[in-house]
Amino acid sequence: MLKPRVLFLCGANSCRTQMAEAILRDLAGDRFEAISAGYEPAAEICPDAIEAMREIGIDLSGQRPKKTDELLGQPLAYVITLCDRQKERSCPIFPGAASRLIWPLPDPLQSESLEERKTSIRIVRDEIRRCVLEFVSEHA
After folding, report:
1. CA-to-CA distance for 37 and 94, rounded, in angstroms?
2. Which of 15, 46, 83, 131 is an active site residue?
């Protein structure tokens, strides 16, 4: 049986969406296929996100930023946008999904200093984990 595909979507696909993809895979990879993409993907995953995920026992080393174009025409059960739409007006909308959700999380990479960024990434990571747990309990 095919698992429902969940696409986590935002601009750079280097931090929030990568963490969400990995957390869903870790918590419910037996029930969902987790993927992520961005409309302007970064060259690499944010090293601070990799470090923050390592702290909770999840390895992002097998993931890479992907462009939304790679997923065009593929069936998706859910598209979850992780943009704070009030601040990131260019966050994409992906057509063709059976269900769309928005988790308006702030972009931790917009922090003023390195320490603020690391703290923000951890806060967003923990909020993503909470959102993923809620999603799994409602959709599994």
Report:
1. 10
2. 83
pTM: 0.92
- 114-124 tens-digit pLDDT: 999 999 999 99
3-class DSSP assignment, residue 76 = strand
Question: Is 131 among the residues known to form the active site?
Answer: no
Note if 10 is an active site residue: yes
Q: Which of 78, 76, 106 is nearest to 91 (CA)?
A: 106
- pLDDT tens for each residue of 29-52: 999 999 999 888 999 999 999 999
Burial class (CB in 10 A: 0-12, 13-18, 19+), 13: buried
User: Does an H or E element contain 6, and which?
Assistant: strand 5-10
Choosing from 10, 15, 46, 131, which is the catalytic residue?
10
